[in-house]
Amino acid sequence: MKKPSIFFISVIILAFMAAIFYIFWGNPFSAHSELDIPDKPNEKLFGMFNKEIEKEIENHTQSVMYPGYIAESRQNTINYLKTIKTIESSTRYGVKSTQPRNNLELRIVFKDGNVAEKIYTGHSCSGYTSPCLLMKVEMKDGKATHIFTNGVERKGSPEWIIPDLNIMINKAISYDINRNPNQYFPPQKTQQDFDKEWNE
């Protein structure tokens, strides 16, 4: 009688530990699905995406909300966007995954063949809520020419996905700002500059 009792107690403990693990760390297995592939064309998004590109260029180079940019930053942003071939969003574990830190990331392919991967957007996805919108944007001369999605956007109003468009454009631009800050901001001051200011 003792052996079966120990067995059942062990099973209960393991089940309890598995439940706790799932609650805090989510599903340890892959949660990838058809929603992780942005392969559905959406022609309405072209104009929306390109309109948001103009807004983001303005916000990052002219707006008082983002001070400090040099006068050339606007044209440098436009020139940078013209080097992009595709921008694609994805999640680390899949849009249906319940694992923590399921980051929404970008992959940028440039015309010269270079690829920037795992660009963190600052956002994450959770299978506990609605699946994230994933997009693949094909670009030419700094504008979207084709956009494919995972179809999630059609479950709501077009206006609802404007923040998703902004995130993609914003982070794509921010990638170049972080990589080439001298094309967007004045040179950082050195100790000599500080000494000169104090002696003036």
How would you characterize the overall build of this protein?
The protein has helices at 2-25, 44-61, 73-81, 162-179, 191-199, and strands at 40-41, 84-91, 103-110, 115-124, 135-140, 143-149. By secondary structure, the chain is α+β, with helices and mostly antiparallel strands. It has a 6-stranded antiparallel β-sheet with strand order 1-6-5-2-3-4. Strand 3 and strand 4 form a beta hairpin. The model has no long low-confidence stretch (mean pLDDT 87).
Features:
six-stranded antiparallel β-sheet, 5 helices, extended
Describe the secondary-structure layout:
Blueprint (H helix, E strand, L loop, with lengths): L1 H24 L14 E2 L2 H18 L11 H9 L2 E8 L11 E8 L4 E10 L10 E6 L2 E7 L12 H18 L11 H9 L1
Antiparallel strand pairs: 1-6, 2-3, 2-5, 3-4, 5-6
Task: Tell me the strand percentage band.
Answer: 15-25%
Distance between the termini: 92 Å
Give me the side-by-side strand order of the main sheet. Answer: 1-6-5-2-3-4
In round numbers, the mean pLDDT is: 87
Describe, in short, the structure shown.
The chain is an alpha+beta fold and 200 residues long.
